[in-house]
Amino acid sequence: MTAEQHSRPSEEEILLAFSVEPTHDRKTLEQYLIEYPEHAKALVTCSIELMVDATRNDDAVVTSEGAVDRAWQRFQTVVDQPDNVLVTNPFATLNPTAFRSLAKKLDITNLLLIRLRDRAIVAATIPRRFVQRLATELGATAEAITDYLQSPPAMVSGHSFRSTVKPAVTEQISFTEAIEMSQLTPAQLDALKALQD
Q1: How far apart are the first and last CA of the chain?
Q2: What is the C-alpha to C-alpha distance for residues 157 and 164, in angstroms, rounded to an integer?
Q3: How far apart are CA 188 and CA 131, in angstroms?
Q4: Which of 27, 45, 171, 181 has minimal CB crowding within 10 Å?
Q5: Rounded to whole angstroms, what are the CA distances from 20 to 13, 37, 44?
Q6: What superkingdom does the record give (predicted)?
Q7: At what angle do helices 40-55 and 65-80 cross, to 10 degrees?
Q8: Strand partners of residue 169
Q9: What are phi and psi of 173, to 5 degrees?
Q10: Is 60 helix (H, G, I), strand (E, B) or coil?
Q11: Do 36 and 43 form a contact (C-beta atoms < 8 A)?
Q12: DSSP 42
């Protein structure tokens, strides 16, 4: 071990220091991630736990799935956004039924809509006409949808509370790859290919 490794605080000390910070916002998390990249997973996990704790009502010990989803949305908003730009997640208010309904209105599979929501598709490859349809169905502007889709990819949260798999940032693929891998019918594929610029 080098002298520098001996002088570095342990993971436990770093997490303790992070947990007693006055705020646990994006800037604070980024500072710790830059200074201690070897403890990035532990710091992100700690940040999520602190946000969940902040949303917990002291009177109710039972954590609902809604509270977990709200904490996750807060975390993604803090982590994903540049310091001075607020990009709204147009999918944030959709419950599972509304999400499935949106996929049906767009005539796409839930899997493709999940890829769009998680920004797993390179925004520049998504046809403008499709973005306009998505914006219309979500009651947003095409510009707002484009801004959201151009934001960094989201962390996959589906496994974070249901299994031992750690959340990870999704790898972006092209729109063409996404539609070919999203279990679409031949008619749905043809309709989406026709929208390509």
Answers
A1: 57
A2: 12
A3: 16
A4: 171
A5: 11, 19, 15
A6: Bacteria
A7: 130
A8: 155
A9: -130, 170
A10: coil
A11: yes
A12: H
Task: Please tell me the distance from the alpha carbon of residue 36 to that of residue 14, in angstroms, as a whole number.
Answer: 8
Q: How many residues does the chain have?
A: 197
Tokens standing for residue 82: 């540049």
Coil, helix or strand for 155? strand
Tell me if 153 sits within 8 A of 171, measured CB to CB.
Answer: yes
- Which residues are CB-neighbours of 169 under 8 A, at least 6 positions away? 152, 153, 154, 155, 156
Contact partners, residue 84, CB within 8 Å, separation at least 6: none
Task: Report the helix count and the strand count for the chain, using DSSP H and E.
Answer: 11, 0
What is the C-alpha to C-alpha distance for residues 147 and 161, in angstroms, rounded to an integer? 28
List per-residue pLDDT tens for the chain, 197 residues long: 455 555 778 888 888 888 888 888 888 888 888 888 888 888 888 888 877 766 555 444 455 666 676 666 666 665 555 544 567 888 888 888 988 999 999 999 988 998 899 888 898 999 999 999 999 999 889 898 998 988 877 654 444 455 555 555 557 888 888 888 888 889 988 888 888 76
Asked whether 93 and 66 are in contact (CB, 8 A), the reply is no
Region class of 108: left (phi > 0), else alpha (psi between -120 and 50), else beta:
beta
